[in-house]
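Quick look at the format.
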Amino acid sequence: MTVQSDVLLSLQNVHVAYDGIIAALRGVSLEVKKGSIVALLGGNGAGKTTTLKAASGLLAAERGAVTVGNVLYQGRDSAHRDPRELVKAGLSQVLEGRHCFPHFSVEENLIAGALVRRPCRAELARKLDRVYQQFPKLKARRYSLAGLTSGGEQQMVAIGRALMAEPALLLLDEPSMGLAPLIIEEIFEIVKDLQTDDGVSVLLAEQNATLALRYADHGYVLENGRVCISGTGAQLAAREDVKEFYLGVERRGPGENRFSRMRARRRPAHAESVSS
């Protein structure tokens, strides 16, 4: 895979192992182009979170490492860069489970996201105003302890904290987890606005494939640490196998059950790309 000028993030045949022996990724290749939303789909254990952490330099915190392949952000190797350097370079990740500081106020949580750039007081105020424009609910709760806010508000805090570093690329890990449907829709609309209004690129790991493919320009389906299908969001949403296994639509022939189809589906060893 050749990195082009419009490619912001590129993973090229990436293998990842934990503790040197547990294989989590087995040759993942993907691209995130500037100004795009890319969805990573797959069930628990498919490798979505590991893929995000390989991109953001957070594997070492869990005794993981890229053992084969290349991770390039803005054309430079990022697999071995300090995560703080990547944040300064415009790559921010929102971890699964939100991870707000519960005993800090909403505003203190947001300010924490800006500290890596050491902004002056005026710059910090500008960043806060921008986040409050994107998340009006947070402005109303700015002095509340983050631990006492709702799950949806905590997700907004986590995204807003990442935005305080003014990223070019935002990595989101399961942003819909544990949230009510209306709140999920609101979160995804905000993500879309970040793309269209601010030019932020997004790599989104999500189990809610129906919603993710509605917003994604491109998508990759992971199984057992490999990319098994890729294509545009519309192409993936239209595929019968993707509908069955990731959108919850089942089609079975006579004498066939879901598990026999799943076993047959997992036999191919190489990724399949959906042609236009």
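Next, a different chain entirely:
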Amino acid sequence: MSPGSRSAVDRIPAPALFISSGLIQYVGAAVAIGLFAIMPATAVGWWRMAASALVLLAWRRPWRQRWTRGTLGAAVLFGVVLTTMNIGFYIAIDHLPLGTAVAIEFLGPVGVAAVGGRGWCDRLGIVLAAAGVLALTGVTLSGGGGRSVLIGLVAIFVTAVMWAGYILLGRKVATGGDGVNSLAVGMTAGAIVYSPLAFGTTAIVFDDVRYLLALLVIAIASSVIPYALEQQIMRRVTAAQFAIMLSLLPVTATLVGAVVLRQFPGVLDILGVLAICVAIVLSARNPGASDSLDAERVIADRTDAYSDESKNGREPETPAAG
């Protein structure tokens, strides 16, 4: 990127870049939902993860690194958890409104931050997150849907648990060697473990260029563009500032769901989302960390493909993490 283009991006306020990143990311999720009509959500999730694994393998060529049994095992476990998280999210948004799913899944990172915290902010954060989740769950169940809604709720709670595991394992993998190489190996392992999910869909993907292009759009919109924008953002904001912006993600997802998918929230939905947004901010507070992104590392591991994972691949002392 030329100096001139960097200056142009730098002139855009960081919050505007972040909101753009969130909007583009969840538009990618909306496109994925459109593919659920022609193949299962689990298959869409697998294709996205498999494509990301191939890209990372071609880029990093991790076989050139010396691996120990411990580092290889950690990478494989990390990749399986990551793949489970992403496939679970796709199952959830096949059965739940996008905004509701995104808000509930934040229970995972908020819980990690609360368990590791000691102050009143952490306790209040988990209480607000729980209240928001209860509100969203109650509204979702009362709206009908029966078995479909239950499947979505189970899937998103599993996703939240996997997100918590992803954060803990991702930090271990990132500090144990070359994190991006570990990511490439892990995502490959996850794709292999879940490969049965793709059975019967190869012809669908490769026989119609529209579906292949749709998968490409999902990868670019949900991974490449948000990652590129967030790299600009993370060089310009503190942990506290990023936490505030991160709390906009459930709101952004709700907005995209309403505009693109016609999933209009009710009053209790909005209150639940807002409670979780406040919980995100409280859980990411870290006294004395105003000039570092250590607090953000706990809360800001995102759900989407290699945009999130590449951040974990950077060395822990690098300030531009996300």
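The chain is about 75% helix and 0% strand.

See the schema section for token definitions.
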